[in-house]
């Protein structure tokens, strides 16, 4: 972290331990996994002369700072102010909505990302308009600590055969062959649907939320033939898709994701997931009054 041109006599090096991630910043190109924090501290009045540097390592929750003694004092003041604010709880609210293909077209939802799946511009979406055409709405909520993963299971457990067992016996006295047809063998149930994992990380402004998302989609696509020696059986065709991404939003702002598309009876349906992360005080009350951003 020490710059080769730094005036050593004027510089002080400090390491600060953080209990949780206080900062959001730009990832360093020279130091993989480290977050550049100069702009964050500059906004608080800290100067960074040649050779000064500030890096935050989220994997170890350590902040490394090289600066003059005067600026180090300013950095410590900013850290103390940020740490004095209670670590907020994060309420994760999710709704999964099924909408017909023609209604998706009529709503004209603006797209801001197309791959690996669609994310819509929530600022242009009116929840009332979507609710009018929704085929079904399921709602899930869970509270999470800042920096901790929360799981929302939007799934159904279904039992499918893991294998089929059957055999033949020969009755020598009667000179006949007895066939025992294959019978299904079951083990653990399969989770069909969508699992959403969210890990919210709240910035020091206690307003900006950087959230890591993991989306696991498992669908039952019908049955496939499984040929046995003397008969045929069927096995489930289960399709699994996994995605990881991260987005930065603000307290109470919803995110709208198209998780998958279903085709049934010649019709096409789109499954949308509305996710909203909002901050809560330790007693569960909202950290701030926010108007409903769902429209």
Summary?
This protein has 295 residues and is mainly beta. The protein has helices at residues 38-42, 69-84, 101-107, 127-133; strands at 12-17, 26-27, 34-36, 53-57, 62-67, 89-100, 111-113, 119-120, 136-145, 150-158, 161-171, 176-186, 190-202, 208-227, 232-250, 254-264, 267-280.
Structural write-up:
The two termini are 47 Å apart. The strands form four sheets. The chain has a six-stranded antiparallel sheet. Strands 1-5-4-3-2 form a five-stranded antiparallel sheet. Strands 10-13-14-15 form a four-stranded antiparallel sheet, with no helix packed on it. The chain has helices at residues 38-42, 69-84, 101-107, 127-133, and strands spanning 12-17, 26-27, 34-36, 53-57, 62-67, 89-100, 111-113, 119-120, 136-145, 150-158, 161-171, 176-186, 190-202, 208-227, 232-250, 254-264, 267-280. The radius of gyration is 28 Å and the shape is elongated. It is 12% helix and 53% strand. It is built from four helices and 17 strands. Strand 7 (111-113) and strand 8 form a beta hairpin. The mean pLDDT is 78. It is mainly β and 295 residues long.
Keywords:
295 residues, 17 strands, elongated, single chain, mainly beta
Tell me the layout of helices and strands:
Layout: E1 12-17, E2 26-27, E3 34-36, H1 38-42, E4 53-57, E5 62-67, H2 69-84, E6 89-100, H3 101-107, E7 111-113, E8 119-120, H4 127-133, E9 136-145, E10 150-158, E11 161-171, E12 176-186, E13 190-202, E14 208-227, E15 232-250, E16 254-264, E17 267-280
Antiparallel strand pairs: 1-5, 2-3, 3-4, 4-5, 6-9, 6-17, 7-8, 8-16, 10-13, 11-12, 13-14, 14-15, 16-17
């Amino acid at each position: 972290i020490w710059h080769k041109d730094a005036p050593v006599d004027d510089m002080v090096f400090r390491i600060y331990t953080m209990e949780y991630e206080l900062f959001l910043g730009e990832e360093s190109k020279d130091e993989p996994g480290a977050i550049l924090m100069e702009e964050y501290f500059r906004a608080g009045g800290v100067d960074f002369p040649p050779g000064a540097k500030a890096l935050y390592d989220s994997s170890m929750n350590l902040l490394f700072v090289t600066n003059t003694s005067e600026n180090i004092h300013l950095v410590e003041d900013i850290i103390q102010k940020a740490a004095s604010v209670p670590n907020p709880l994060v309420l994760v609210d999710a709704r999964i909505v099924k909408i017909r293909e023609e209604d998706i077209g009529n709503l004209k939802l603006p797209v801001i990302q197309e791959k690996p799946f669609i994310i819509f511009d929530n600022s242009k979406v009116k929840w009332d308009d979507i609710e009018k055409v929704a085929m079904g709405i399921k709602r899930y909520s869970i509270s999470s600590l800042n920096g901790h993963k929360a799981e929302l299971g939007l799934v159904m457990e279904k039992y499918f055969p893991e294998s089929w067992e059957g055999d033949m016996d020969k009755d020598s006295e009667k000179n006949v062959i007895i066939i025992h047809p294959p019978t299904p063998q079951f083990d653990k149930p399969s989770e069909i649907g969508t699992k959403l994992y969210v890990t919210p990380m709240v910035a020091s402004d206690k307003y900006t939320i950087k959230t890591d998302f993991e989306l696991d989609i498992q669908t039952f696509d019908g049955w496939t033939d499984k040929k046995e020696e003397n008969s045929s059986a069927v096995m489930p065709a289960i399709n699994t898709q996994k995605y990881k991404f991260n987005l930065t939003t603000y307290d109470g702002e919803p995110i709208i994701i198209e998780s998958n598309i279903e085709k049934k009876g010649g019709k096409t349906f789109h499954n949308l997931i509305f996710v909203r992360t909002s901050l809560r005080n330790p007693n569960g009350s909202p950290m701030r009054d926010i108007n409903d951003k769902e429209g």
